[in-house]
Amino acid sequence: MKENLRNCTFVCIAIGLFLILPGSGREACAAETLLRVAQSGPGDFSGNDEAPILKVVEADNVVEANIDIRHIQGSVRGEGKPLPGVLVSDGCRVARTDSAGEYRLQTGPDSGPFVFITIPAGFWTEPFYLPLEEVAASGRADFTLKRVEQPDRFDFAFVTDIHLENRGDSVEKFRASLREIGGLAPRPAFVLCQGDICLQGGVGDAYVKCLEELTIPIRNGPGNHEMILSDPNPRAAYQRLFGPTYYSFDWAGVHVIVLDGNKPIPEGTDYKAVHGAVEASELAWLRADLSAQPKNKPIIVGIHIPIVTTYPKRRKESPPNAPYWEVANRDVLTDLFAQHGVRLVLQGHMHENERATVKGVEYVESISISGSWWRSGGSVERGVDGSPRGYRIVSVDGAKISHRYQSSCESRVDRQGEFRGLDKPLPSSPTAAIVFNGYDAPNGSTAEARIDDGPWLAMPSYAAMNESIGLKMPHHFRLPLDAASLSAGAHQITVRVRWPDGTEVSETSPFQILPD
Question: How far is residue 273's CA from residue 296's CA, in Å, rounded to a whole number?
């Protein structure tokens, strides 16, 4: 039977018989996202007329169906030499270059709008993609890469929630942060920006102009505010500027995956009309990309709408189902990432720091570089959790990955947290309390504090409220204090916050007790 199937063959079993047919669109590559690329080896596309077989396997029975699928071919070369083993994708399927740097890739109605490569370690290029329509005309897509130095030890900066506006000082503050990032020591190898640029506000050209501040590479991913809901293709504005909305690349020994994860809802108009989901072709590509990685290779993922977050539960006015605040198929992704040993998932959207570990994978909601949408009017910009605006620095040293929150520019502070309300003297009351915001303390952290040279006392987690949006803020701790037992005048409080991994953060602050 296979001798008669010279074009792409789809195999699909899903609780009975399911055939992927022409015209089925992006859903064809999904079938509950159980696509697999079956091919015999990395060089299988060169000189082989047999196309790879896409399979969905849910039972022991297999049915094959022949459909008309186009093929493209091409090469990947670096510094004039062929590059074997490079991944090439149409946004659904993944091929690999052979020993001559050549590949052959099938495309179909489930393909994305681009053909793109996973840039291998030691190389770089800005045009890592080509529009599929252009490629289809010639049937060929070739890529040329430049060799760049990539030490095993490096940093990169993760930026999210820019929210540029055509008014106010957001552009100048963002430009200042980019200059700050470019001047860090050690200098970051690249910047990963995971939305919201806010293309819905027509700021694409202003954003691109801001990037001129950088002399290091940058890669972008879309946020929900890049989805132009009035456009038949909500991603068109983003794609015109930056190409694919999901892709991957290698830097030194690390594999970086940039996800889209936005699902525009037809006829929607506000932020609730973009749900979080990694589905269909994107999920099929993600499975194939992860499967192509060597075992134990460190993998970092970026996405805008969080996969793991407690934000909806902490929001006062939140429905039981709020897919616009988190990825709906979270369990599929957390299982997939755990299966493939993903080390770190960087997330945005919530304008706060929240860190949690699920199935051995750390998920980080990282602070917005806009704080709370640039609302301060010139002074310190804070996220909805009270942390000063900023970004995250990810440090890689071989297989070791660490990261830290960094406040930025006019909002920069040289501390790991702050005490609330100690700028004014405390009343001499037996029911006083002191609250500490540990800016980047992960979920599950514990704290203790002491007054002056007194004993260490438990400082329990505390659901401090951001009253402006009805949100219980993470990483806050509260020490009940019998201030009446303290003498009037100057005192000192020291707090120690212990993270689940054993990291200890300590801060000290003076305070005053009013006389009776």
Answer: 38
- Among 177, 148, 149, residue whose Cα is nearest residue 161: 177
Which segment of 246-255, 371-380, 485-494 scores lowest on mean pLDDT? 371-380
**CA 10, CA 223: separation in Å to the nearest integer?**
33
Query: If you average pLDDT over residues 231-255, what whole number do you get?
Result: 97
Inter-CA distances, 73 with 12, 47, 50, 54, 129, Å: 26, 11, 13, 18, 14
**What whole-number distance in Å separates Cα of residue 227 and Cα of residue 234?**
5
Is the pTM for the entire model greater than 0.90? no
Span 311-342, pLDDT tens digits: 999 999 888 888 999 999 999 999 999 999 99
Peptide bond into 49 cis (omega under 30): no
**Alpha-carbon span 361 to 355, nearest angstrom:** 11
Count Cα atoms within 13 angstroms, Cβ side, for 37: 32
Distance CA 344, CA 321 (A): 26
**Residue 6 to residue 51: CA distance in whole angstroms:** 7
The closest alpha carbon to 152, from 428, 400, 499, 364, belongs to: 400
> DSSP letter string over 370-398?
TTTTS-SSSS--B-TTSPBSEEEEEEEET
Distance CA 403, CA 172 (A): 26
**249: Cα separation from own chain's centroid:** 14
457: number of Cβ within 10 Å: 13
Phi, psi of 273 (to 5 degrees): -90, 5
Query: How far is Cα 471 from Cα 469, in angstroms, rounded to an integer?
Result: 6
Residue type, 123: F
DSSP 461: B
Provide the 10 A C-beta neighbour count for residue 482.
12
Whether 455 has a pLDDT exceeding 50, the answer reads yes
> How would DSSP label each residue in 57-98?
-SSS---EEE---EEEEEEEEETTEE-TT-EEESSS-EEE--
